[in-house]
Amino acid sequence: PCSLHIDHRNRGMRTRLGCLSHKSDSYNDFTAILPDKPNRALKRLSTEEAMRWADSFDVLLSHKYGLAAFRAFLKTEFSEENLEFWLACEDFKKTRSAAKLAAKAQRIFEEFIDVQAPREVNIDFQTRELTRRNMQEPSLSCFDQAQGKVHSLMEKDSYPRFLRSKIYTDLLSQTQRRLS
């Protein structure tokens, strides 16, 4: 099983490295995934709004276009599963139906938490095990610790790189150019 695990990872890494040549940390990546038509979105986005994303990670996450830009950036780093997991948890916490709760929790666990999950997030063994135990009786808070770890990882690691990225700097200069 160990050699298979390593082989699986290596194959995934080769695939990811193969994709690197097709990815670029550029302004175009951002416009491709904007919530609505890129040009209309950019006309609506003010330089002040985009600059506020640098105030705090949560300000960035709470802004529709900030979220889109951050997602585009994470795609260039092949780590968008962190944001997707965080968003899935945010959505999960709004679940009002007890009937849907367990099924939704299971889906999130299988997609992001379980070892070898298709979009496995980077969390420590203790957090993974705690979350596994929480799954025995799923509640709205069963992913809180894992979500907190992933939020913290993105805030300390990806967010500062995003603020220095070409995606963000191009976006700022684009909004400023519109004003001149």
UniProtKB/TrEMBL annotation:
Residues in RGS domain copies: 56-172
Any one cellular-component term (Gene Ontology): perikaryon
Subcellular location: Cell membrane; Cell projection, Dendrite; Nucleus; Perikaryon
PROSITE patterns: RGS
Superkingdom assignment: Eukaryota
Keyword field: Cell membrane, Cell projection, Membrane, Nucleus, Signal transduction inhibitor
Membrane topology listed for this record: Peripheral membrane protein
A Gene Ontology biological process term: negative regulation of signal transduction
SUPFAM superfamilies reported for this sequence: Regulator of G-protein signaling, RGS
Name of the protein this chain belongs to: Regulator of G-protein signaling 8
Lineage, opening ranks: Eukaryota, Metazoa, Chordata, Craniata, Vertebrata
